[in-house]
Amino acid sequence: MPVSTLTRPRPVHRPAELLAAYLTGSFYFSSPYGTLLADGVRTRVHGSPRRRAAAAARALDEAAAGGVPDPVVVGALGFRPDAEASLLVPAVVRRAAAPSAAAAHPPGGQAPTGWTVRLQPEPDGYVGAVGRALDLIGQGALRKVVLARCLKLTAADPVAVTSLLAGLVRANPAAYAFAADVTAPGDRAPRTLVGASPELLVARNGVTVTANPLAGSAPRAGEASVDRARVAALRDSAKDLGEHAHTAGHVADVLGRFCTDLDVPERPEVIGTPTMWHLSTRISGRLRDPADPDCSALGLAEALHPTPAVGGVPADRALTAIAALEPQDRGYYAGMVGWTDRHGDGEWALSIRSAEVCDRTVRLFAGAGIVADSDPRAELAETAAKFRTLLGALGFEDPV
Ligand SMILES: C=C(O[C@H]1C=CC=C(C(=O)O)[C@@H]1O)C(=O)O
Known about the structure:
Blueprint lengths: L14 H7 L5 E5 L2 E6 L3 E3 L6 H14 L6 E6 L7 E5 L2 E5 L19 E5 L2 H16 L5 E11 L6 H11 L4 E6 L9 E7 L2 E6 L2 E4 L2 E6 L4 H13 L1 H19 L2 E5 L5 E4 L3 E5 L2 E5 L9 H8 L7 E2 L1 H11 L10 E6 L4 E5 L3 E5 L2 E10 L5 H18 L7
Antiparallel strand pairs: 1-2, 1-9, 2-6, 3-5, 4-5, 4-19, 7-8, 8-18, 8-22, 9-10, 10-21, 11-12, 11-20, 12-17, 13-16, 14-17, 15-16, 19-20, 21-22
Helix pairs in contact: 2-7, 3-9, 4-9
The chain binds the ligand C=C(O[C@H]1C=CC=C(C(=O)O)[C@@H]1O)C(=O)O.
């Protein structure tokens, strides 16, 4: 039997072991397909905006030539196309199956004592910004824009990212959960992007490509009869279906450039997270030219970004409106986080339901898609509900 067809024995890990082995500075990513924990830095990957997949491919080839078996590039990209990125080939990678709801995860959460909370903007400021976005939509300059607001929390003591991550995975075992080191020059302590995103930007496995755009939301009530009514209302809401169509249409158009046999369900379904209900379209296709370097998981993710789940329509005007209407730079929020390997396989999730943690501070964002029929107060309530993913994992009982 030729050596290449032999199966290389791999260490077998359990998902909970990898979660427990996470240390600040490691890279952790778990999804419905598996868990990856990466440690150490073999090579940092630098690339110009929208050309990071090419830089990643070069780094992977160099690592393979240097004797690394099955190298991967892991990390996170910020929201703005020219924003910061933190991509690297790690020294050690461990993999396990997907986290299971039943598994005993290490305890998470942290008693929320002595926190100070700053909202940027204040709720009325956010409502005003949604009003200005509605003016732009009314004038025909925009059709959709996602506006986010920011919570800045400061604790009395350094925030334990290990417990925060464990709390997120325990509460959201089906999510794309992640912790990525995004320390920047000038940071006086490690900075970590941590979160539990419901949204798969794109995954590639061989010739198969999958994406799961979400847009159009309702908060989960936690009471069965109320939630049944909310799900039914969301499924039939013309406003939410329109908001969703922008995002699903963009993803289908971009993937259509690379794929044959693109399967795009006609109507979205409703999926639930522990805090939200979302309209969801699961799109899949077969790559036309799998050897094309632009078709790696990271290349496809760069081609898709920013989808109207985090940007808007038209994309360039939405980015201008976001820069003008949001008082805070988004940093890594609403960018992407994931991994890609030498075969082009990988998974990239949107870095939403996320926070940047640095020493005693936690900076978290939540956004909502604004379309012609949006009600500013309802969009404010939607962002409050989206904050609950992170605030719950931090131990806030009745977050906002
Ligand atoms: C921008 C966010 O969510 C996006 C993903 C799902 C539904 C969304 C919405 O209904 O507005 C957003 O497009 C966020 O959580 O900060």
